[in-house]
Amino acid sequence: MRVGLFIPCYVDQFYPQIGVATLELLEKLGCEVHFPLNQTCCGQPMANSGFEHLTGGCNSLFIDNFEGFDYIVCPSGSCTLHIKEHLHEEKREDKASTIRKRVYELTEFLTDVLKVENLEANFPHRVGLHQSCHGQRGLKLAQMTELNAPFFSKPEQLLKQVKQLDLVSLSRKDECCGFGGTFCVTEEAISVRMGQDRVKDHEDKNVEFITGGDMSCLMHLEGILRRQQSPVKVIHIAEILNSTVK
């Protein structure tokens, strides 16, 4: 199983340890992982701001880097969803279509493709899970609480396999954190207030860590936590699933 590792640009620049954790985790689970060195931004920021017509270069480069892999795995729901829904190139639409079907968010890949049921991970801490909107509502990684339907959560399914991890039950478990990409720039005050509300729900449950599958959301929450001088930390789910106690 040849896996292409797709790392979001903000992870590459600010949180490289998440890319390393994702690589190590996939290799532990038997995948042959490759990291195309020429990969850059997938084009999501431009598309979210109304400039999708300027993402042609990003699309072309993505196809150059990731065609030929059995699967493409990304530790980000928002970037994964962008590729699934927006990767196109007129002259190579057949290759773009194949890639769109082969790209997976990390927890989606672990549960749906590898069907992981026994993780050798250990994280002795009290943890709250932030379910990002792109992952939940776009990729269907978890059921939305406003729907009268059976509950499921792929991230929770994996976290419950981690030894000694105490996963708390939040009051509003699928509420948006307010990041929203460029929304946090154009609507700063609303974004901050939403983030404060999201942080309070975790703090009320006395968590030590907030985790999730989108570091963009966690970065937003991390900024609020630091400004409030809160002892709560953020950690990407890949880091927890890859963790061991030495």
UniProtKB/TrEMBL annotation:
Domain Cysteine-rich stretches: 3-84, 127-221
Lineage: Bacteria, Pseudomonadati, Bacteroidota, Cytophagia, Cytophagales
Source organism (scientific name): Flectobacillus rivi
Protein name: (Fe-S)-binding protein
